[in-house]
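COMPLEX REQUEST
Ligand: molybdate ion
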Amino acid sequence: MTEIPRMISLEEAQELVLSHTTRIPAETVPLIEASGRVAAEDITSDMDVSPFAHAAMDGFAVRLADFPSNEADLPVELDVIAEVPAGATYEGSIEAGQCVRIMTGAALPADADAVVKYEIVENVTGDGKTGSRVRFASVPAARANIREAGEEAKEGEVIVRAGEIINPAGIGFLAGCGALEASVYRRPRIAVIPIGSELVEPSEKPGPGHIRNSNGYAMAACAHAAGAACDMLPIVPDDEDALAQAVKEACKTYDFVVTTGGASNGDFDFIKPVVERLGTLYMTTVNMRPGKAQTFGIVDGTPVFGLPGNPAAAYMGFSLIIRPALRAMQGYSALEHPHVQARITRGKKKKDPRRIFERATIARNEDGVLEVTPAKNQSSGLFGVIQRSNCIAVIPEGLDPVNEGDLVECILLDVPEEAIV
Ligand SMILES: Nc1nc2c(c(=O)[nH]1)N[C@H]1C(S)=C(S)[C@@H](COP(=O)(O)OP(=O)(O)OC[C@H]3O[C@@H](n4cnc5c(N)ncnc54)[C@H](O)[C@@H]3O)O[C@H]1N2
Ligand code: MOO
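STATUS: Structure written out below.
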């Protein structure tokens, strides 16, 4: 096997993978499925929204001409000549001294130029409905409590631009504008292939020397969280030909193939020779811990990424290198997890010059200052520590120690709002 030159930096690895992935073509999906995805084309409104001026309050539609310019001439009394509920229209005219009782959402009668809410109108006779006389103690502002026609959108106007992420409110916006489907970038189809003769399906109790395939599940979930559509393919034993066959087959169907395990230099680590045999191998090691053994290459035009077998190492490689590429493939412009800086609560001597990604918890102390506390157990064999963390504290490369109170970069993970401070 040709030796791949050197251990590259995380940034070089990210750039390398990004440079070998392309944005996926668009597809047209029913509106609700477009939520959270990137619009591939400008979307226009098929009409003015709202199509008509309407009341923003339950009250009375009035003509300003009936109100005095001098406050001293108040109050004003008007006759209620009609009622317009939402969904109906009042087509008649409103003459001097008249008003129309109107409900929120009902079309504004042509002659009205303000709506006065019930609460500040007094009944002189009757109950405020048709035939009553009502009293106004103040002069309404012109167009008060009126939602104008076309305030949300004009017919033919671009309401969502290509490249915008359509959010849940945007789905409502589009529905109101008659856009019942949207052209968005397709979700990349990802295959996850767990490699390892020691692996059994999680439905089984592993026998001696065996463990459950937990990486496959975590990587499938990471792919899903990154917006991709993921299939977990059957476990492949540590057998070079079996792995070559599985990878070659997956490259026919999927946009991106991810393996876990067999990425290091052990006697049964085959992803590097397989990628080299089937295509072009671009990367084998990245200056990061956990997760030094990260393989990347192209097989039959498809990106193939060999994650290491250790759970935290696989998670880190996926989150930091694969995830940005999957997001770029879907047209997102922000590719990385958000970062914040926090003061580290424990110093650390460095024996390994790699950049270290510590599973950690970030929180605000009583003074409102962000503090980060790395988990005590940083073994790369553990998923539970990541389940109980809400960020990754980044300890820079080199051998300089980190001192308590130093500001460190923290990467916020795919965690629920409850865990973010
Ligand atoms: N002589 C050296 N040995 C190792 C080195 C090294 O530099 N020199 N690096 C170590 C580090 S660090 C890592 S990370 C691993 C990476 O090795 P592989 O990618 O070849 O991973 P495996 O050997 O296949 O597995 C490592 C570990 O992870 C468990 N594993 C694998 N797949 C799964 C899965 N789907 N679900 C759960 N757990 C899985 C596997 O049983 C091993 O315990 O190499 C070190 N060795
Ligand atoms: O590359 Mo290993 O991940 O340091 O556990």
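REMARKS: Residues 194, 196, 198-199, 211, 213-216, 260-266, 269, 290, 292-293, 308-311, 313, 380 surround LQZAQKY5 (ligand 1) (CB under 6 Å). Residues 35 and 168 are 6 Å apart (CA to CA).
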